[in-house]
Automatic annotation (TrEMBL):
Lineage, top ranks: Bacteria, Bacillati, Actinomycetota, Actinomycetes, Kitasatosporales
Major subcellular location class: membrane
InterPro entries in UniProt: AAA+_ATPase (IPR003593), ABC_transporter-like_ATP-bd (IPR003439), ABC_transporter_ATP-binding (IPR050763), DrrA1/2-like_C (IPR025302), P-loop_NTPase (IPR027417)
Organism: Streptomyces caelestis
Compartments reported by the entry: Cell membrane
Name by which UniProt lists this protein: Daunorubicin ABC transporter ATPase
Keywords for this protein: Antibiotic resistance, ATP-binding, Nucleotide-binding, Transport
Length: 310
């Protein structure tokens, strides 16, 4: 599947470039990538909002171009933020409106809405206007709206973006329930731990192209037996990072700022212990904590994106 558009000076650019991806029944697949990688464009094509320039896309065998109405009927879309909700209506009025749009028989609407509000934890707030809801409550209502017509396929576009940790954990539990119920789920997210926890498979995109696909564990193994030395330190500069990257055995170095301190993630092979050499380079700085760990999905993701960029 390919989706092109015209950029500056009329140049043709690829939002999606030859993407091949399949989600099986009862499976959750994560779509990962930096901003502009093509994740949302892929989701929008499956939602029948965009048309592919070439290739095919289908939902349960229904072509999204030739038979968009059927594709929509079997697909639930769960977005983030305020899009898709009417702020001045109550939660229950929002769901009644969408139940009419989905063509749900009138006698089934109220009991189904009550069950969904109970499932997402909004019973007791159903008569409140959505404009008074927190972001987490809106996300719960998005889930209820997306499941109103009992779809077989669910597309989630960054559903936990901006939600507090407790709300995000509860949201992930709700998402897991959809897979246990036999639904197929496509998840786009920037949160690597979320994809690691939820997804059976993940696909990594960059510049519209899929550069890797596999289970979270298989992608972690692509870090080629790396060990990550994590050092929390204060006063690190780019000159320190440059010298650390030049050390024998060091494959990559990441630096994250945390107010008055920084965290260094130094990647090396299992055959080389670089701890002493790293600490020697940081002599004179305030080293707060040193630890070792196995690579995470985020480490694998950064490695894949960096390799592809090179």
């Amino acid at each position: 599947m390919t989706r092109t558009f015209k950029g500056p000076q009329g140049r043709v650019k690829h939002a999606i470039n030859g993407l091949s991806l399949r989600v099986e029944r009862g499976e959750m697949v994560g779509l990962l990538g930096p901003n502009g990688a093509g994740k949302t464009s892929t989701a929008k094509i499956l939602m029948t909002v965009l048309l592919p320039t070439s290739g095919k896309a289908g939902i349960l065998g229904h072509d999204v171009v030739r038979d968009p109405q059927t594709a929509r009927r079997v697909t639930g879309v769960i977005l983030g933020g305020d899009a898709g909700l009417y702020a001045r209506l109550t939660a229950v009025d929002n769901l009644l409106l969408f139940a009419d749009l989905y063509g749900i028989p009138y006698r089934e609407q109220k009991p189904r809405i009550r069950d969904l509000l109970d499932m997402v934890g909004l019973l007791g707030n159903e008569r409140k206007r959505v404009e008074s809801f927190s972001r987490g409550m809106k996300q719960r209502l998005h889930i209820a709206r997306g499941l109103l017509h009992d779809p077989d396929v669910v597309i989630l576009d960054e559903p936990s973006n901006g939600i507090d940790p407790v709300g995000a954990r509860e949201l992930r539990a709700l998402i897991r329930e959809q897979v246990r119920d036999g639904r197929s789920v496509l998840l786009t997210t920037h949160y690597m731990f979320e994809a690691d926890e939820l997804c059976d498979r993940v696909a990594v995109m960059r510049d519209g192209t899929k550069i890797a696909e596999g289970t979270p564990d298989s992608l972690k193994k692509q870090t080629d037996g790396q060990v990550v030395l994590t050092v929390t330190v204060s006063g690190v500069g780019e000159d320190h990072v440059g010298r650390l990257r030049a050390l024998p055995g060091v494959r990559s170095v990441g630096l994250t700022e945390h107010g008055g301190s920084q965290t260094l993630d130094v990647h090396s092979g299992q055959e080389t212990d670089v701890t002493a050499a790293v600490l020697a380079e940081l002599r004179g700085l305030s080293v707060i904590q040193v630890s070792k760990r196995e690579p995470t999905l985020e480490d694998a993701y950064v490695s894949l994106i960096s390799q592809d960029r090179r």
